Amino acid sequence: MRLEVTAEDIVRAVTLLRAGGLVAFPTETVYGLGADASNAEAVKKIFAAKGRPHDHPLIVHIADVAQLSHWAHDIPPAAQTLARKFWPGPLTIILKRAPAVSDLVTGGQDTVAIRVPSHPVAQALLLAFGGGVVGPSANRFGRVSATTAEHVHQEFGDSIDCVLDGGACDVGIESTIVDLSSAKPALLRPGCITAAQIETALGPSGASLAAPDAQSPRAPGTLAKHYAPRTPLMLVESDLIDELARSFARQGKRIAVLVHSARQPMIEQLVWIAAPAAPAGYAHDLYANLRRLDAAACDVLLVEALPLSAEWAAVRDRIGRAAAGSGTAENG
Ligand code: TXA
Ligand code: MG
């Protein structure tokens, strides 16, 4: 835990949660905007603060797998298997909801999303609070997620009650979401825990993780438009990015560029970031990089297309959605 978060800060944050307040907290993936999952008024405040539609369900964060049965019913053995292997950690599991879970949390669905985060500040908060904390990513709806306390501040200013500053998030992109509420396990959102790791953990019974189908629970965070900067974002193949940047520059456009294979800017007048060339590092820096490039308020943001291999799947997913949702004042 960073020294900035003291035991007194945790006590204060718990007091705020008990009073129905909004407390942003670090997790190993991204910052979450927390509220007491059992307090309907507090949960409503989350939707208002984020500008998020009410049918978009929230993840309930708990300190320990022992609390699972309070929130979920008909828990299949596969859930215990994944919990043992990956919790605490960046995995969210969708299960049948228990009657205790409010419709506000589930968006009216008969399932609930549960996660046990590993970040020491999140763990300290959840342990001291004792109950479930709903925690969507701490960003305005459709926008780029927050991976530092400063980003959270940029999103919400003083409109939330407290931000616990646990430093920059290790993983940098949101948790992997696996649906275990229906007969066939499905991957609803890729993350740093890969589909292959989940399949290995599940063994022969879960051998191939299905893609979501019409029967799968909706995961609105998998909207085509999400994680979006305001600057129009174009994904460009590596061998074309140089030429395209020059052509935009000739038209007098201001250009931001995010590359991962080049180390030198191709022309001078670019706002240019060379991201780490490996997927974990790229994910770690992704949202901070998008925020920095967006803040330059260029006419266009060129992002070098990512490799097609499985290890890049999660960041490819986020960049693809960022491209689909960029350049609009509000996203769907
Ligand atoms: O890493 C993370 O998961 C972060 C940190 C803060 O824990 N949280 C996060 O929450 O990304 P959020 O609300 O931004 O994204 C949660 C996703 C949404 O796409 C939502 O639709 C989906 O989970 N979800 C929540 N409950 C669900 C349910 N019952 N069935 C299907 N999808 C669900
Ligand atoms: Mg989100």
Q: How far from one another are the termini?
A: 36 Å
**What small ligands are held by the chains?**
threonylcarbamoyladenylate, magnesium ion
The parts where pLDDT drops under 50 for at least 5 residues are none
Number of spatially distinct domains: 2
Order of helices and strands: HEEHEHEHEHEHEHEEEHEHEEHEH
Structure class: alpha/beta
What is the alpha-carbon Rg in Å? 20 Å
From the coordinates shown, what is the CATH architecture of the largest domain? Answer: Alpha-Beta Complex
Helical content stands at 25-40%
State the CATH topology of the largest domain.
DHBP synthase
Number of helices: 11
CATH class of the largest domain: Alpha Beta
Give the rounded overall mean pLDDT. Answer: 92
Shape verdict: globular
Number of beta-strand segments: 14
